[in-house]
Specification:
127 residues; Multidrug-efflux Transporter Regulator, Chain: A, Domain 2; 2 domains; two-stranded antiparallel ribbon; 5 helices; 3% strand; elongated
Length: 127
C-alpha cells in the first residue's frame, strides 16, 4: 500500500506517517522504484500508535513500548506496570485540573481580587 492509500485508510496525514517513520516507529519496505510500500504490519503499528496516543501516551513512551515489542513480547506484568504508571499520571493531572477548577470557581463566585490594585494574591490559594 502506498502512503496516499494508507493516509486515507487510517485518516492520518502523510506528514504524520512520515514523522512516525522518522522516529522509527514504523519501517515501510522500499520498492526498487524508490516508493515506500506499507504492509499490514505497518497498519497495525499505526493503529497501536493511535490507540496509545488516545490513552495519553507520548510518542517517546510509544517508542519505548514498540522497542520492547520488537525484541520480544512484553510480559504481562511489565505491560501492567506501564499501564499503572500512565493511570497514575492521569490521576495526578485530574487532581491538578480539579484544583484549577476550584480556584476558578472561587474567583467567579467571589470578588475577583487578582484584578484589583491592592489584592493579596497569596490568599487566593487558601480559599
Amino acid at each position: 500500500m502506498l502512503i496516499g492509500e494508507l493516509s486515507k485508510y487510517l485518516d492520518l496525514s502523510r506528514d504524520t506517517i512520515r514523522f512516525y517513520e522518522k522516529l522509527d516507529l514504523i519501517q515501510p519496505l522500499i520498492r526498487n522504484n524508490g516508493y515506500k510500500d506499507y504492509s499490514e504490519q505497518n497498519i497495525q503499528q499505526l493503529r497501536l500508535i493511535q490507540t496509545a496516543k488516545s490513552l495519553g501516551f507520548t510518542l517517546t513512551e510509544v517508542k519505548q513500548i514498540t522497542d520492547l515489542m520488537s525484541v520480544n513480547e512484553i510480559p504481562a506484568e511489565q505491560f501492567h506496570e506501564i499501564l499503572e504508571d500512565k493511570l497514575n499520571v492521569v490521576r495526578n493531572k485530574i487532581l491538578q485540573l480539579q484544583n484549577i477548577q476550584s480556584l476558578l470557581e472561587n474567583l467567579i463566585t467571589q470578588e475577583p481580587c487578582p484584578f484589583q490594585k491592592d489584592c493579596d494574591v497569596s490568599n487566593i490559594h487558601k480559599q
